[in-house]
Amino acid sequence: MRILLVEDERRLSNVVKKGLIEEGFAVDQAFDGEEGQYLAESESYDGVILDIMLPKLDGLEVCRELRKKKITVPILMLTAKSQLENKVTGLQTGADDYLTKPFAFIELKARLQALLRRSHNQTDMNLKIDDLELDPIKHVAKREGKIIILTPKEFSILEFLMRHQNEVVTRTQITEHVWDYSYDSLSNVVDVFIATLRRKVDSESKNKLIQTIHGVGYTIKNSSIQ
Ligand code: CA
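That is the input. Now the predicted structure with calcium ion docked in place:
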């Protein structure tokens, strides 16, 4: 999952970024409204965290502009306590939820995950294919009921594949959603991660779920049912 974080307070932004990366997200930072709007329009994000008080262009304006341009990415707005009326305005401009500053990271994480879940229309939070199960909130992956130990990056890639199960995803799609802007796209890196995932997820099962579609990318599907 790739998140855009638009927040001009650098210390807060860096703390949030660090926390989200530890949860397996890829995070791009923007430090003013214009930069935020530009990135939200030009890159592909799963969610945007948008502060209201920003230099150059405020968060409400950014949100309004994005919605006007039919960019439907879930937006979580950050508002200071003294600006409670902004909550209402924020939701009117098309934000999906808001959080009042100061906030605990755990609350931001919970709100963000709820937002991402709603945007994926998932009533059941767990992802499942054959006997492979993934709990995106608790960060647990299991095959045949046994826990698979995955790094945050490996977990993100597996989660991305499972959210798009039975579809073919390209290496570019994987890098776009799992790595951030500062990352130089080397498709080789994706292949290395997929090889590790295969070893951890598929090597001990008869039913190989992760499949290569030559010249295109990867898919995860249950090959034991036609
Ligand atoms: Ca601010």
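The chain has eight helices and twelve strands.
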